[in-house]
Amino acid sequence: MRPPARIALLTTAIALVCGVAAAPASADPAGVTIRSLGDGRSRIVVPQRLPVPIRDAAPVVMDGRIPLGYGRIATDRRSVTLDTAARVTDPHQLTVTWTGGSLPSGATPAAPATGTDPAPPATSAPAPHPMRLAAPDPGLPGPQATTRAEYDLGDSVFPLPNGTKGELRGEVTYPAPLGAGKRPLIVLLHGRHSPCGRADGSISVTWPCPAGYRAIPSLQGYRALADLLASYGSIVVSISANAINATDDEDNDYGAAARAKLVIKHLELWSGWSGSVLTGPFGTTFEGKVDLTRVGLFGHSRGGEGVVAALAENKRTGSRFGIQAVVPLAPTDLMRYQLRGTPSLTVVPYCDGDVSDLQGVHYFDDATAAQADTVPHALLGVLGANHNYFNSVWTPGGWEADTIDDWDYTGDPANAFCGKGAADRLQPTQQLAAGDAYIAAFFRARLQSAPVYDSLFLGNTEVPLSAAPGKVLASYVAGAAHRRKLDDLRGATGLNALGGSVTATGFATAQRCGGGVKPATACFKVRGPGEEPHVGPWIGPVSNPLAQQHLAWSAPNAVWSSAVPAAYRDVSAYKYLTIRLARDSWAKTDASPQVGVRLTDADGHTKTVPLTGPALGTPVYTGPDNDDAYGGPPQALVTGVPVILAGFKSVDLTKLTQVAVVGEGTAGNIVLADISFQTL
To answer: Of 443, 477, 511, which residue constitutes the final position of a domain?
Structure first.
């Protein structure tokens, strides 16, 4: 029997993750209460039949299929509360779902036709001639030996914003010997996981852990990454956030501020231990060895949002620490914190079974759209990667309780995309190696003056051997000094970002979508939530989806043309023309769309170069026509396609007049999101 659609199984899956009996994420209609708070606001309480499980995605109170807002989980985990000014149409339709992309249980998709499982998708084909990385493989161990030490200042010593107290515990990995000079400091923050467990597999959400339970050492799950970073000279501190995970259900921001303050507190500790407080757990070991002007932050899941919030907290309190790089991994983006002004790498696992709508893409989109930022930002999608395997403690076999393949219970017809039999699905060691290689490359580029590693994120660079067989979808937007934006679809219709005219001829569809229209609309036909991560749906404090241009054609030589005004025609100083695009992941055909880019100069010289690479070879659903029954991947991730300008030898790049995207072949269906000239 074909397994049910992912969206119908998600709540049960997460309950299994937590070792708790699974409760459908829906209300008992007889027990729903709606109480007036005055001023047109009401308090909705939606009871749950069984305790709500721990997960990183946030609960959303739904009125039928209309999201009303984020809910708060009660202390006993048996109800979800929402204060709202929204009008409820029918209390019997009130349910609870998750920001990760699931629908309310009971919203059962139509059954698929018998014997019509989807065929395996096309794999993410690399470019015929992918660009070589002109640097050593960033996933190979560095030249320095490393050692590790722990510090534990107590389980209930750090005041949290909700009035409780949490632990101050960390694990430091560093070069041995430290040698002379100061070294970058990188802080790693784990995500929202059960705080306590025991050998029989059961868990507790009480902090400190009750008798018979031990703290789950989530902070140890990034040791491979810590070893890699330390082997190249960084001091790496992984910190524990179990108390926050046990108490953040009723926080209005789901613990983001608490995680931010925890990160800043650890930075304060290290400021002392490397300077004036030499009576701490390490004595004089780190005296004068920590460079707090070169700080990197890494966070996984809710920890990803936590480190972005820590960046904001650092700025709010006077920028005492020089945070030069932030890496949110499989992050939530519930409060819409901003990364503008600080270099970032956002990593989203394509097979995320928790934050399955890949909402973290908004960090990258918000930082790079509209006015150019002064610093670079990168986005990396890792095909075949799930949510948990980036933390070895959360991976089956990694600890005694609360370990799981988070995709395993979410359904995947015929294992086409993310199931254990899928062609691109990564094993735990493969996933760790792929993630660690790219994360280490980014930190080395930002904290250790190795910008050559930025090229890994352009979109067509070959995957390092250490990350194989991993496949990635990457985008890179350079800082303003190294980029000239031609268009990001946020200007007036018919004009690009430089004021030049934009025309489209020969397309069956040529229209703005995403954030380019109000209200925001999907670009491709939507089959379920989360399949266009850059668009939404979004119910947070800010809704600003990525603006895109949808182009579909059914005959060759359709042309979307963007004129270059006279003041901007000399682009000879740039190395790449970078186009960010996605193909229709529900196109029903494995054939990649044939797309070219055409440049024309003032003398009429023109040349068209085909676009190639992972962006044109992303997975595609090729199943039956009633594919609304399937709610899993593929995902329409917008991916960078860099074209080397030196290849346009017949065109005078000092007087460029036009850039055109050309739809070739018999048919195609894509979206464009950004066209710019860049140099690293």
So the answer is: 477
Q: What is the mean pLDDT of residues 446-463?
A: 96
Query: What are the beta bridge partners of residue 124?
Result: none
Q: Which residue(s) pair with 98 in the sheet?
A: 59
Q: What is the CATH number of the domain that holds 351?
A: 3.40.50.1820
What is the C-alpha separation between 498 and 307, in angstroms, rounded? Answer: 35
611-626 burial, b at 16+ Cβ within 10 Å, e below that, comes to bbbbbbbbbbbbbbee
Considering the domain architecture, whether residues 457 and 508 belong to the same structural domain is answered as: no
Q: Is residue 656 a part of any domain in this protein? A: yes
pLDDT over 80 at 415, yes or no: no
- Does an H or E element contain 325, and which? strand 323-329
The residue from 428, 448, 477 where one domain ends is 477
For residue range 126-157, list pLDDT tens digits in order: 334 588 998 999 999 999 999 999 999 999 99
Largest CA distance in the chain: 81
Q: How confident is the model at residue 109 (pLDDT cuts 50, 70, 90)?
A: very low
SS (H, E, C) 625-680: CCHHHCCCCCCCCCEEEEEEHHHCCCCCCCCEEEEEEEEECCCEEEEEEEEEEECC
Angle 414-417-422 (CA atoms, 0-180°, nearest 5)?
70
In a domain, 317, yes or no: yes
User: Rounded distance, CA 202 to CA 196, Å?
Assistant: 9
Measured CA distances, 657 to 135, 503, 573 (Å): 35, 14, 16
Please indicate, yes or no, whether residues 404 and 418 belong to a single structural domain of this protein: yes
Residues 21-30 as b or e (16 or more Cβ within 10 Å = b): ebbbbbbeee
- Tell me if 259 sits within 8 A of 302, measured CB to CB: yes
Within 10 angstroms of residue 387's Cβ, the number of other Cβ atoms is 29
Write the Ramachandran bin of 179: left for phi over 0, alpha for psi from -120 to 50, otherwise beta.
left
**Residues spanned by the domain of 87:** 6-98
542 with 596, same domain: the answer is yes
**Count of structural domains within the chain:** 3
Q: What is the pTM of this model?
A: 0.87
| CATH code of the domain containing 581 | 2.60.120.430
SS3 content of the chain, % helix, strand, coil (to 5): 20, 30, 50
Distance CA 383, CA 360 (A): 15
Q: Is 74 helix (H, G, I), strand (E, B) or coil?
A: coil
- DSSP-based three-state secondary structure for 362: helix
